[in-house]
From TrEMBL:
The keyword Signal is assigned to this record: yes
Pfam family membership, one: Abhydrolase_1
Domain AB hydrolase-1 residues, every copy: 74-211
GO cellular component: membrane
Protein's name in the database: Alpha/beta hydrolase
Record's keyword terms, sorted: Hydrolase, Signal
Domain of life of the source: Bacteria
Species annotation: Massilia eurypsychrophila
Gene Ontology MF annotations: hydrolase activity
Signal peptide feature range: 1-22
InterPro entries: AB_hydrolase_1 (IPR000073), AB_hydrolase_fold (IPR029058), AB_hydrolase_sf (IPR050266)
PROSITE patterns named in the record: PROKAR_LIPOPROTEIN
Keyword Signal set for record: yes
Length: 333
């Protein structure tokens, strides 16, 4: 789960662009963008990523969802976390588009997708993901869910099984954010729960209030604002330039997200090759180890402190992350 930052991720600044036909990202967004850090092997400007496009489709309940795409080859679909968007995946997409047809779907009320006051449940987000695959005409793809995006994938597997999934990766999402009062400490740790008060947690995540650890025990706030990676500085500055958060829109799915417990799906329904990515600064490292133990033959990557091992590891250390993800996806089943 990704903490809110008022200027980053979320709702489209240029929502009308989401209704346009597929076009180069620079055309859809209306201008070029120069990244603050020039990094060898990555774009210096948005226009350097000539293959990057933005498109949209409409769900069966009438919501226009935007998606970012680049590359050719085997389809690889990313589902962002809460309040996140495809702009933040720019480095990840650029690196992986050399080998895959990479997609990032902006969930409803996030990124360049439409704001609506209905369908704000993880199960509906999973249906949106299923309809996205149908829209693309993809019968099978590899999927990567980060933060709440992993929960969307767990719901997708609950509803539709794994027939349409080749391989799957989850990035640092606990099976249950909410801790029940009668759980033992072992259960809480294995579930990864960080709060026992969903309403107060949501309030702390969507207002300037600083939560104490009795409300929510999380390092993610501090790690999100720690601009300790030039890759992360680039992708976050790009997201900030083109998207803004609508707090009320983002809050709509949060209670449903916080109160789900996915341990039954994780332990009983996942029968495809699985990779789990986490780090030493994760709020739910014990839970990531539990997920690894619950899914047969899964692989676990735990990033060290000097490897940007926090909730944002894919964006802070995209070279390592994309190399390890590529190795996992390329390995024969």
């Amino acid at each position: 789960m990704k903490p809110i930052r008022l200027a980053l991720g979320g709702v489209a600044l240029l929502l009308a662009c989401a209704t346009a036909a597929a076009a180069p990202a620079q055309t859809v967004l209306g201008k070029d963008f120069t990244f603050p850090n020039a990094i060898v092997g990555l774009p210096s400007k948005l226009s350097d990523f000539k293959d990057l496009q933005i498109n949209h489709f409409s769900t069966n309940d009438g919501v226009k969802l935007a998606y970012w795409e680049a590359g050719t080859g085997k389809p690889l679909i990313f589902i962002p976390g809460w309040s996140a968007n495809g702009a933040q995946y720019l480095n990840v997409m650029y690196l992986l588009s050399k080998r895959y047809h990479v997609y990032v779907l902006d969930p409803r009320n996030q990124g360049l997708s439409q704001h609506v006051d209905y369908g704000n449940r993880i199960s509906r987000f999973a249906t949106d993901l299923k309809e996205f695959g149908d829209h693309l005409g993809i019968k099978k793809a590899d999927y990567v869910g980060w933060s709440m995006g992993a929960s969307v994938l767990w719901s997708y597997i609950d509803l539709y099984g794994t027939k349409g999934i080749g391989k799957v990766a989850f990035i640092d999402e606990p099976p249950s954010i909410y801790s029940h009062a009668d759980w033992t400490e072992k259960e809480r740790l294995e579930a990864g729960a960080i709060t026992s008060d969903a309403e107060r947690m949501i309030d702390s995540f969507t207002s300037p209030k600083a939560p104490n650890k009795m409300v929510v025990d999380s390092q993610a706030f501090q790690r999100a604002t720690l601009m300790d990676s030039p890759y992360y500085q680039n992708s976050e500055s790009f997201a900030q330039a083109f998207v803004k958060n609508d707090i009320e829109a983002l809050k709509r799915v949060m209670f449903d997200h916080v109160t789900n417990d996915w341990r039954d799906i994780i332990s009983k329904r996942i029968n495809v090759p699985t990779a789990i990515f986490t780090g030493v600064y994760s709020d739910s490292l014990a839970a990531q180890r539990w997920i690894h133990s619950a899914i047969p033959n899964s692989v676990l990557h735990v990033y060290a402190a000097n490897e940007q091992g926090d909730h944002f590891l894919a964006f802070k250390n995209p070279l390592k992350f994309t190399a390890e993800l590529d190795a996992f996806l390329a390995k024969p089943k």
